[in-house]
Amino acid sequence: MPLIIYYRKNSSKTKIMINLLFCCVLFSLDIVPQNVLWDHYTIIPPLGEVKSIVASPLSLLVISDNNLLVFEKYSLKLKKTLHFNDQNIYLLAYDRYSNEFWILGEKSIIRLTMPTYTLREYPVPEQAERLGVSRNYLYLDGVKNFSFDKRNGVTSLIQVFPEGIEWYKKTGDADIKKYPYLTPYYYFDEAEETQTPFARFRITALYDDGMDIYVGTRGYGILKYNKISWQKKRIIYGPLDLHIRQVKKFDDKVYFVSHLGLSFFTAGTDEWHYHRFVRGINNILLSNKELIITLGGEISRIDKGMTFTISTLTTDVLCLSADETSFYIGTSTGLYKLYKGTNDPMQFGPEGYPIYCVLPADGQIYAGGEFGFYRYDRDKKKWNKELNFGVKEIVQIKDVLYLLSTNNQLIKYRQEEDTDTNWVLLPYFNIYDIDSDDEVLYCATFAGIYYYEPDTELYKVIYNLPRIKYDYVFVTGKNIISVSDSAIYSLPIEYRD
């Protein structure tokens, strides 16, 4: 709708208002993320470095890496996560005059209005060590001093700061040492949380709210202390890191396998737990109600935070699958089979080159490797090479297999005896990962998450997720988890269309 302005002739007040309007249009910009209130997806933030913390009467805001986390202040429930991909954000301030928040970035200052999550961005000339708030102005204390007019977005160079400013600044060592009860100013994991019990997680941000003090860390989460009783509550708000390799749902728990270890939460809650490992986990599965993981060439089970070795191979394990009697182990030198209850794996099928995926099925076992796709007939006890394409992932929907080749092409395969060919290359390019909800096939691509409908043989884009490059996609119950190089997104399947 066009903007209509009514004014009287020679009205100086109207001229001032029009000039102010043009200044606001000139100096402020809408930014991404947009329409935050209406987004159906949520962003899952990793346990990063907390840079800044601030609170209003109802909300607690935290910058972790380049994510802005919005918590309900008293329950400490994470309500919203905003990801800023285009610039580094590092300092927060609360404006009690307007009940808004200000986010300072390396290129701009961003105004956040709650509860609509409206964002407006204004350019700033340089980074600042402190951000001051008054009724009509903000003040930036850096190499030079600047004032920022909140009414029109104009930044001006000043010589001296006025009195009565409420200052917010980066947390330094001197700020931390004002609280001797936080000695030694770093934290350790609990014994059941880690294989590196002496790793230190230092304090990186503080916010004193009068009755409570909030402590941010690097990789350990957020802690809240009551300054009278010194009762402590810890917030673990996401997985250990952003480098997600697998996401699996077993029973009521969702597990994230990442570079630093294993993170999990119970579906329907936001209470995260984790276990850090010295070496990165490659795979996870549930067998006989036990969690089985692979670490390098080692296959182990997890029990109450402890790991117990089942078997060790001389080469790295690339994939792990199982049926009722056996584990199937894809390695960098071929495929192995390990009967459950034993610890000696045996060579089984393709050998001499990497095997990336194995799918045990009724009557058949399928394996994808660097130089082909293979099928094992359980009755005939015989392997056949079905395709000469390298295959790195297999997903089954009903009686059809969908294969992701090593050159990121999608192949439809059906095991039939009376046809000249049992596979077809589906038209698309640069698909990096696939998964299924048993109805459609989800594809992580360079331009968003798509899904392929077997009935219509059409690809459809999921518009309710950002149109960016994704490296992985996982389906966990009723949610689609998609992973880019900078963020983890979760979308309920009901909002797929």
Task: Characterise the protein shown here.
Keywords: Membrane, Transmembrane, Transmembrane helix. The chain crosses the membrane at residues 16-33. It comes from candidate division WOR-3 bacterium. It is a single chain. The protein is built from 2 helices and 47 strands. 4% of the residues lie in helices and 52% in strands. The protein has 497 residues and is mostly beta strands. Among the domains are: 22-235, Lipocalin, CATH 2.40.128; 432-497, Thrombin, subunit H (Beta Barrel). The strands form 11 sheets. The chain has a 5-stranded antiparallel β-sheet.
Features:
497 residues, mainly beta, Lipocalin, Thrombin, subunit H, 5-stranded antiparallel sheet, 2 helices, 4% helix, 52% strand, disordered N terminus
How big is the Rg?
27 Å
**Which class of secondary structure composition applies to the elements?**
mainly beta
Average of per-residue pLDDT values: 90
CATH class type of the domain at 22-235: Mainly Beta
Number of helices: 2
Could you say what the CATH architecture of the domain at 22-235 is?
Beta Barrel
Q: What percent of residues are in strands?
A: over 45%
| Large-scale geometry | elongated
CATH fold-level label of the domain at 22-235? Lipocalin
Q: Which segments are poorly predicted (pLDDT under 50) over 5 or more consecutive residues?
A: 1-32
Separation of the first and last Cα atoms: 28 Å
Helix content: under 10%
The count of β-strands is 47
Largest sheet: 5 strands, antiparallel
Spatial arrangement of strands, main beta sheet = 1-10-9-8-7
